[in-house]
TrEMBL record:
Family: Belongs to the SRR1 family.
Domain SRR1-like, first and last residues per copy: 101-263
Domain of life, source organism: Eukaryota
InterPro entries the record matches: SRR1-like (IPR012942), SRR1L (IPR040044)
Official protein name in the record: SRR1-like domain-containing protein
PANTHER family, sorted: SRR1-LIKE PROTEIN
């Protein structure tokens, strides 16, 4: 479905997916604004997901994903995405994160329901194809509290490991790590930046919501919610090199709008000490 035709009002998509999608102020851009969930709410999500995989749904979903990956691979969006990664400037950033290591593991947070929605399927297709195309991308780990047992089984048959623990984004990049966090809430990015505040920021790359857009939102709308929930994101902004993802066509807009690669400055340690948060 063309992104511009999608319903933009806040919606509860399923009983266990309480996303808040907020209307933008202008054009076709939408923002996933930060939302704070209590530990009780987060726990509740766990109880609502199914416990046993359904083989029939599993095979249907796997077929759907194979078709999605195939279509994605031949898209103009994917070609543009690959071209962008392979520019010397971006490749150098990746090599600098890799250092002397040969592989960069990928951690995917917040993919959403791959069974219920096309957007998470497109986002997953991109992750799988990146791994296929680049030998330096290592194992893929996935976590989203809303993943069902069926979805987890399918992810595993596509070669991903599904984490059983909710890290709340607090993973430290003690080895080179690509965090793939498509359209997550600001709080999760903030947890990640905070957990890596210091030397480990250099060992990570983040593909997720544009930090520049959060900054801009604070400037334009004086959003105190973002100031409070994305404190570390806003603080690390000026030490971040950001490259935005081109959505190219409406078909990929919903899945990748406002998304960027984020690399963190190699002279970070000294500079971070100077940044007040
Ligand atoms: C705004 S939705 C985005 C879903 C999908 N990527 C998309 O673009 O439609 C945010 C997702 O983050 C997930 N999430 C919430 N807390 C999380 C956590 N601690 N770790 C990983 N994912 C989390 C939610 O369940 C939800 O699927």
């Amino acid at each position: 479905m063309a992104a511009s035709a999608r319903v933009l009002t806040p919606e509860i998509r399923t009983v266990n997916e309480d996303w808040t999608v907020v209307l933008p102020c202008c054009g076709r851009q939408r923002r996933n604004l930060p939302r704070i969930r209590s530990p009780e709410e987060q726990q509740k999500q766990w109880f609502l997901t199914e416990l046993v995989s359904d083989p029939h749904r599993e095979s249907k979903l796997l077929q759907k994903l194979h078709a999605c990956i195939k279509k994605f691979e031949s898209s103009e969006f994917f070609q543009t995405f690959l071209d962008q990664i392979q520019t010397p400037e971006i490749l150098n950033h990746f090599y600098s994160v890799l250092g002397s290591e040969l592989k960069m593991q990928m951690v995917i947070y917040g993919i959403g329901s791959i069974e219920s929605y096309e957007t998470p399927r497109l986002q997953l297709s991109l992750a799988i194809l990146m791994k296929r195309k680049f030998s330096w991308i290592g194992d893929i780990e996935v976590f989203d509290p809303i993943l069902s047992a069926t979805e987890s089984r399918v992810l595993e048959s596509l070669g991903c490991s599904v984490l059983s623990v909710n890290e709340q984004g607090h993973r430290r990049a003690i080895k080179p790590t690509l965090f793939y966090m498509p359209h997550c809430e600001a709080e999760l990015y903030d947890n990640l930046v905070r957990a890596n505040w210091g030397v480990t920021l250099k060992g990570m790359v983040l593909l997720g919501n544009s930090f520049a857009t959060y900054d801009q939102h604070v400037d334009e709308y004086k959003s105190s919610v973002i100031v409070d929930t994305a404190r570390h994101v806003l603080a690390v902004r000026r030490l971040t090199r950001e490259f935005s993802i081109q959505t190219v066509s409406d078909d990929y807009f919903a899945a990748f709008h406002d998304s960027s690669w984020h690399f963190f400055s190699p002279d970070l340690e000294a500079e971070l000490q100077l940044v007040e948060i």
